[in-house]
Amino acid sequence: PAEPPHIAWVRLFASVTPQNLHQNWRVLFESCLAELPPRSQTTIAALGLSAWFTGLLTDVGFLHHQNVVTLQWDGNLPPARPLADEITFRMMTPLDLPAVYQIDSLSFEPLWQNSLDEVQRSFSQAGYCTIAEKEGQVMGYQISTLKPGHLHLTRLAVHPLLQRLSIGYGIVYHLLSFCSQQAINQVTVNTQDSNRSSLALYRKFNFSLTGDDFPVFIYP
Q: What is the pTM for the complete model shown?
C-alpha cells in the first residue's frame, strides 16, 4: 500500500550471493537514495528483523530509533470504568473509514501513520473492529485480526482532543469482554517501547511483555 507523505519503508532486500551481501545492499540502497528529490524530507525506516540485516542497515548509516514490543493478555478482565452515558460502542462499517483515517493521522507520529489505502485494507482484512462514538461522532476505534483462539489488536486510537476520558480504556474493555465471551484465550498487541501511554493502558488490563520485540531503524 501507498506510504504516507515523506515516509518510506524498506520492505524487502534479497541477494542471491551471500558473499557480496554488503556490496549488493549498498549499491541498491544508494540507487534508491538517488531517486529522492534534492533536499528531500523523506524519512526512510526499516525493521531489524535479523542480525545480518541490522548490520546492513547500520553499515550505511541507519540509526536505532525505538523498539516495537509485543504484549499478551493474561485473561483476567479488570473492573469496568464509568463512561458518559452518551458514549456507545458498535461495530465499524465502511462509512466510518474516513473518520478512522482522520483520527489515525492525528494520533500517531508520521512514521506510524496509515494512509487511507492502508486503513481500508486493514478493515477489509480484519476480524473484529469497533467504534466508540457519541452523538454520531467517532471518538476512537480498534481494529483486530482474528483466528481460532487468537486475537491480535493491530490498531487502537482515540482522537487527541478526547483523550484522558477513559475512552481508550472503554474500547479495550469492550474488546476483551468480547474475547472472554468467545473463549479467545490468546490476545496480543504490538506497540513502541517509547509509547508510555500505550504501555500504561495495556498494563491496566494485565498485559505483559513477551520479550518478542524488534528494533526500528531510521536513515537520517
A: 0.89
